[in-house]
Automatic annotation (TrEMBL):
One of its GO terms (cellular component) is plasma membrane. Pfam families: GAF (PF01590), GGDEF (PF00990). One of its GO terms (biological process) is negative regulation of bacterial-type flagellum-dependent cell motility. It comes from Cellulomonas composti. Residues 228-357 form the GGDEF domain. This is GGDEF domain-containing protein. InterPro entries: Diguanylate_Cyclase, GAF, GAF-like_dom_sf, GGDEF_dom, Nucleotide_cyclase, Rev_trsase/Diguanyl_cyclase. Gene3D superfamilies: 3.30.450.40, 3.30.70.270. It comes from the Bacteria. GO terms for molecular function: diguanylate cyclase activity.
Length: 471
């Protein structure tokens, strides 16, 4: 017979145990309050659940669209017998207990053995859900419980715990403890999610999803404190005003999103870099630990490999601490902006001075026919692809900036497609307008190019061939 102590002593021990539990939850609350992100919060909660529940393993799971996925397991060293079990997502349609947890926000218990350690009999209602009991038998464990994590009124996930045959069975008191862990975790998740939303609103550009000027400034300051070489690239979009004026601001917004995607590709090839939208059509890239020549090579290759639509282009300038020495972020941004402006002007002057190989109408007409016929032949079937290919080839031959394919509808011209060679600045050009049936093709040409009757006749014939040959 076991000797029992005085009632007061037993009461004191129970009070101490309860206090230890309260302290454990208080410690968990403090730890969750310090968590800066979701990953840290779920790992903290899982580790606390394992300790507070006396579990062999405790996990935090994410539930989306009735599918449960384990995010983290504590302790992390998992017995191979049930490692695969924990790593495999499962659906509510296959697990009635999970379905009930999602629908009713109800915790559950399941036992593969009874209090004496003997396997439970099939159909024993006190053992819990039959599927969960069968799962415990498969992995050689004795007891399991799960409690919902409810965030903003919806089941976000669950706290899940397992015990082996030598640890006793989970009780309703353990379920209550798991529910407290789940509630504390839910509060941390809501806080982290709100802080992330605020950071997104403050630091991200809503149109492109890139970080904004404030984030770029912070990235530059941090990079300069790193001590390694820092490069800043300033870039803007050439031709955005033309696109906005001719095709509408919605198309212009799509163009800005395309530019953002190009800069993301550059940043992806330069780990640790930050691509940002400064405002309007201005973007920047901040790199740290990459040599100036490497940054220049990646920029040239990626920007050249992903040309912008509608005849737009990216102009950029690069400044590096390898050249300027130790300077402030503001100074480095200014140097990059000056380099970008010089690059823009140099390209514009080069395009402005470009003239066709000859201004002789007969020779120009011959060149137009050769280039246009080759483009039509290589184009995909259909009037639009053939006309676009023709317009692009002829505009390039005549050193024009842009071209357009339109269709007459109810007395008005509806734009079908536009494009052209990238133009840094709006420069003077002539436009040759050609019509055939309901189609209208506008060809851009340098003001120095020959565009007399011979050239116009050749162009008109090519348009007719492109349309009639596609019928």
């Amino acid at each position: 017979m076991t000797r029992r102590g005085p009632a007061g002593a037993r009461a004191g021990r129970r009070a101490a145990a309860a206090l230890d539990g309260v302290r454990g939850f208080a410690l968990l609350a403090h730890r969750l309050d310090r968590c800066a992100g979701l990953d840290e919060a779920v790992e903290t909660a899982a580790a606390a659940a394992a300790e507070l529940l006396g579990a062999r393993r405790a996990a935090v799971c994410r539930i989306r669209q009735d599918t449960c996925l384990v995010l983290t397991v504590q302790p992390s060293q998992v017995d191979p017998r049930y490692a695969e079990y924990l790593a495999t997502p499962f659906r509510a349609e296959d697990r009635p207990a999970l379905r009930t947890l999602i629908r009713d926000r109800a915790s559950w218990l399941a036992h593969a053995v009874d209090v004496t350690g003997k396997p439970v009999e099939p159909g024993d209602t006190d053992a819990g859900d039959e599927v969960e009991v069968a799962t415990l038998r498969e992995v050689g464990l004795a007891s399991a419980l799960a409690s919902p994590v409810v965030v903003n009124g919806s089941v976000w996930g669950q706290v899940y715990a397992l015990r082996g045959p030598d640890s006793g069975l989970f009780s309703v008191d353990d379920v209550a403890r798991a529910e407290v862990v789940g509630a504390l975790l839910a509060g941390a998740i809501a806080r982290v999610d709100l802080e992330e939303q605020v950071r997104h609103l403050v630091a991200d550009d809503p149109l492109t999803g890139l970080p904004n000027r404030r984030a770029a400034d912070n990235a530059a300051e941090a990079a300069l404190e790193d001590g390694r070489e820092v490069c800043i690239v300033m870039a803007d979009v050439d031709g955005l005003k033309r696109v906005n004026d001719r095709m509408g601001h919605e198309t212009g917004d799509d163009l800005l999103r395309t530019v953002a995607d190009v800069l993301r590709r550059v940043a992806d090839e330069l780990p640790g870099s930050t691509a940002a939208r400064i405002g309007g059509d201005e973007f920047c890239l901040v790199t740290v630990g990459h040599h100036r020549a490497t940054v220049a090579e990646v920029l040239s290759r990626v920007v050249g490999g992903y040309p912008l639509p509608h005849g737009a282009a990216i102009s950029y300038g690069l400044a590096s601490t390898a050249v300027t020495g130790e300077v402030t972020a503001r100074h480095l941004f200014r140097r990059a902006d000056i380099a970008q402006y010089r690059a823009k002007r140099a390209r514009a002057r080069a395009q402005e001075s470009a003239v066709p190989a000859t201004a002789d109408p007969a020779v120009t007409a011959e060149r137009v026919v050769v280039a246009g016929a080759a483009a039509i032949t290589a184009a995909q079937s259909g009037a639009v692809p053939r006309l676009c290919a023709l317009a692009a080839a002829v505009t390039e031959t005549l050193s024009g900036s842009d071209w357009a394919v339109l269709m007459e509808r109810d007395g008005d011209d509806a734009a079908i497609a536009r494009g052209g060679s990238p133009a840094d600045l709006e420069r003077a050009q002539a436009t040759v307008r050609l019509t055939h049936r309901t189609w209208v093709v506008e060809i851009g040409a340098s003001v120095n190019a020959a565009t007399g009757a011979q050239v116009t006749t050749a162009l008109q014939a090519l348009v007719a061939i492109a349309v009639d040959g596609a019928s």
